[in-house]
Amino acid sequence: MLRRDILRALAASPAGAIGLRGQDRLEPVAVQAGDVTHGRAVVWTRAARPGKMTVRYRTSDSGPARTVQGPALSAATDFTGRVELSGLPDGQRILYEVSVDGGAALRGHFVTPPGAGGDVRFLWSGDMVGQGWGINPDLGGIRIFEEMRKLEPHFFIHSGDSIYADSPVPAEVTLPDGRKWRNRVSEEKSSVAQTLDEFRGCYRYNLLDENVQRFSASVAQIWQWDDHEVTNNWSPSKDFSGDARYAEKNIRVLVERARKAYLEYAPLRLNRKEPGRIYRKISYGPLLDVFVVDMRSYRGPNTFNLQAAESAETVFLGRAQMNWLKQDLKQSRAAWKVIAADMPVGLVVGDGKDAQGRTRYEAIANGNGPALGRELEIAGLLRFLKQNGVKNTVWLTADVHYTAAHYYDPAKAKFADFLPFWEFVSGPLNAGTFGPGVLDDTFGPRVEFARAPAKGQSNLSPLDGMQFFGDVRIDGKSRELTVVLRDMTGTGLYSKTLAVEA
Predict the structure, then answer these.
(1) pLDDT per residue over 366-421, tens digit each?
(2) What is the count of structural domains for the chain?
(3) Nearest-angstrom CA–CA distance, 250 and 237
(4) Which end of the chain is less congested by CB atoms within 10 angstroms, N or C?
(5) Cβ 386 vs Cβ 352: under 8 Å
(6) Which CATH number goes with the domain that contains 359?
(7) Is 475 domain-assigned?
(8) pTM score, whole prediction
């Protein structure tokens, strides 16, 4: 059975047709490619039954097929698995198909990094199926993925919140203006995720969308994670005592289950020495290195974030990850160094109040003033980059559910020992739209552009059209990097071109 036949069967099946009447029990099947770099790529699959995974691939339309045997897929990994392809040529479309025990194959393709002089194009966004806005059949599903696919990027950075484990999907939502939002539903998305299978079910739910499946089979991806893969604003101090939705009150237990499900479903290259590690560098030829950071796994507790000295409370990236990031940025010879961050640097994100009535902070920023709390760690990174002449860094992120362009200017900053840089924000992919947020002046950011709900509006559904993604193009000859912020129809809202600084 060809891929298009499988998609057609999914759409026509009784569960697909009447998912709103009951709980979907479809077992999605899908393929993805991920972490494509020079000569290498990961091919991932999720099957509907156990068996041996096999990947056949060609490096050209008419070239010979090569075969790589993959792992045995079983319930132990929710029938997911991956293989790594190696020895791939640059600047080539790789065609592949995945089968289980010789059964029907699912087909996909991706492109490898271009050689010298070739252009690079990639997209980024985050925040998937949040605030109860799920797969709406009236809209044709999550259509933003189809708009992104049509742009034919080399790859897509998923900036985190790849699922909303803490956000159930109801069958129907009545909007303030009386419109109805309908959701396709599934058993695992009927409550907050606590068990391993419920976390897995959030990923299975997203894969029920045909737009997501087509995109996954056509565009290589780079995944990172943030909070909603576990629960909102989680840190080691997360307290569930007042949340009746959670029978499991131990955040460490939930994180362990969530990380296992994430690593099963993310098409990333697993680190052999540190199997649970998410931060990594993806080298994409002479024009680009992507530094994927993990702002969630190593942080200290969410606190009032105004400590004058670094301590266990102010840890955000952690020593090992920070040392890796500094040294790999210093050693990079790529024209552009993109830091893929799951949270913005300068936007203030609160997390309720502590026992003393002080505002707790979820992200880096803590209001205006000198570098304090978690800002100390970031100040150290920015100072290091200046001292070592590391230029042409661009930060890309999502998280805050609107789109914006921020310029960080040391001449306007309270902490000024850094080189100026740009941060671009885009999202959500399919979640409520909020914002705009408030910028902290510690690192001197200014808003160059923002598109967010009007004052007094929040949690807008995708029906309002305010779902966003970012589009980056690097010209192979001039080495100029252009960022275009786009809405869910693909319409460009803002554009900025940056020249390489020698």
Answers:
(1) 999 999 999 999 999 999 999 999 999 999 999 999 999 999 999 999 999 999 99
(2) 1
(3) 10
(4) C
(5) no
(6) 3.60.21.70
(7) yes
(8) 0.94
